[in-house]
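In this supplementary section we document a worked example of the pipeline. Step one takes a protein sequence of length 215 as its only input; no multiple sequence alignment statistics are reported here. Step two produces a three-dimensional model, which step three serialises into structure tokens for compact storage. The input and output of this example are shown verbatim.
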Amino acid sequence: MVYSRQGYGGSDPIPLPRPLTYMHLDGQVVLPSLLEQLQVADPILYGHSDGASIALIAAGGGHVSTRAMILEAPHVFREAISLQAIEETTRAYQTTDLRARLMRHHGDNVDGAFWGWSDAWRAPGFGDWNLEGVLAGVHAPVLLFQGRADPYGTLAQIDAIASQVSGPCMVEILDDCGHAPHRERTDAVLERAARFLLTGAARPQNEQAQTTEAQ
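The serialised model returned by step three reads:
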């Protein structure tokens, strides 16, 4: 099951500015409620970027009981490199065809999706944002993907997660890859994710595994 969060894709628009706690709201309230509404129990959470951080909040805070987690380019704190990359992307949104390209994915939500993300991450108060406190609450097996050339975060993000989660954690660092491993190294990501899910690390408790992906 793949979904677009509020303010993205074809979902309802969201008022701006987003609160700096928007990922906590998604992980603590929205995602658990969505899974309950859809009667999805014991999910495998697959998240990318903000979606990966939301998955950590949901699982680590005890809001969602997860069978396993696959996380691409997760963030647990803001780095200087993150802020620099977001500033550059914001200038590109204002001066290039980036807005038009993103509109193909978000339609009328494009400005809300972009500015909701950009303004929150660039806000001075966001410098204190940190998810390391929830990591010990993650007991399910975790597979982490990180592009070595990711402009939005360094391997410090992966090291923090791998060293602090309570369950088994596997790490895949991908060469020739930036912030979107599923697009830039599709074959490698699919092969490793499938191998992770087909091993005992994430064996389903029933015959049909249920997978949730947060974009």
